[in-house]
């Protein structure tokens, strides 16, 4: 029987190919080996604002960096322009990485970008990343599920297309579940009102996790009736967590000084 250990196979990014890479929530050590491998092979990297500086520092200096980031109310690069850049770089024979914060298929419009590439016959790969809901809650000491508190978890975005509100609030307000809201700070007052209106207790624990998994992480905790006030203290990128599991943060918070001293807002 052979005593040789299996060797890690290195994937190759081909010329004219695009790799859609999830960067994870910010801690560079949460980047996958495959993501790091492709970042170091790429001729061109298109990145957004949610990719941490520590991760971008892993890209070789010779690589062309193109920022295609968007911020709420300040879209520096329209989505159509990003799609066109991906096409042009790939059609020119470059090895292209499109890197996004978290996971590219979780509220990241990665699917839309790949549809454009597929229609043009461009070869692509997808490298998943740890989505912010999983990474940030883990670093804040908040289990997404727990036998005593929550049997399910729902991930939703608070940033809806054309400012519409087609959320299924009755489902989102169900008890015994964890609700994680991406990009919800600007609509925190509306979220608070709708969850209470549809049956969620105003006293249910909530948390806002700012810059989760990064050294600057902050965790604000309170009750649902505090959400709008709590949101005024937080800055993007932040996640809103609603559910009884938030209570566990006082015992399970482990990451950094900011997490062991959870910031609380007193209920009125």
TrEMBL record:
EC number of this enzyme: 2.1.1.107
One MF term in the entry's GO annotations: lyase activity
Keyword Lyase: yes
GO biological process, one term: methylation
Pathway per the UniProt entry: Porphyrin-containing compound metabolism; siroheme biosynthesis; precorrin-2 from uroporphyrinogen III: step 1/1; Cofactor biosynthesis; adenosylcobalamin biosynthesis; precorrin-2 from uroporphyrinogen III: step 1/1
The UniProt record lists the keyword Transferase: yes
PROSITE patterns associated with the record: SUMT_1, SUMT_2
UniProt entry keywords in alphabetical sequence: Cobalamin biosynthesis, Lyase, Methyltransferase, Multifunctional enzyme, Oxidoreductase, Porphyrin biosynthesis, S-adenosyl-L-methionine, Transferase
Domain Tetrapyrrole methylase residues, every copy: 18-228
Family: Belongs to the precorrin methyltransferase family.
Full protein name: uroporphyrinogen-III C-methyltransferase
Source species: Vibrio qingdaonensis
Taxonomic lineage from the root: Bacteria, Pseudomonadati, Pseudomonadota, Gammaproteobacteria, Vibrionales
């Amino acid at each position: 029987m052979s005593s040789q250990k299996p060797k890690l196979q290195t994937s190759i990014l081909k010329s004219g190919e695009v790799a859609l890479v999830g960067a994870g929530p910010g801690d560079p050590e949460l980047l996958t080996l495959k993501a790091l491998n492709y970042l170091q092979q790429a001729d061109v990297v298109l990145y957004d604002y949610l990719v941490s500086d520590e991760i971008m520092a892993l890209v070789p200096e010779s690589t062309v960096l193109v920022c295609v980031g968007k911020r709420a109310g300040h879209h520096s690069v329209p989505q159509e322009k990003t799609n066109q850049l991906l096409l042009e770089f790939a059609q020119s024979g470059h090895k292209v990485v499109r890197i996004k914060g978290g996971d590219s298929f979780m509220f990241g419009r990665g699917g839309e970008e790949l549809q454009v590439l597929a229609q043009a016959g461009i070869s692509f790969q997808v490298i998943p990343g740890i989505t912010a809901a999983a990474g940030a809650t883990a670093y804040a000491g908040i289990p997404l599920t727990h036998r005593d508190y929550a049997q399910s978890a729902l991930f939703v975005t608070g940033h809806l297309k054309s400012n519409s509100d087609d959320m299924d609030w009755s489902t989102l307000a169900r008890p015994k579940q964890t609700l994680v809201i991406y990009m919800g700070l600007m609509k925190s007052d509306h979220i608070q009102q709708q969850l209470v209106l549809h049956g969620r207790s105003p006293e249910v624990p909530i948390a806002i996790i700012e810059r989760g998994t990064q050294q600057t992480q902050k965790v604000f905790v309170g009750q649902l009736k505090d959400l709008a006030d709590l949101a005024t203290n937080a800055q993007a990128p932040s996640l809103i967590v609603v559910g009884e599991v938030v209570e566990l943060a006082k015992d399970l918070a482990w990451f950094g000084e900011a997490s062991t001293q959870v910031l609380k807002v007193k209920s009125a």
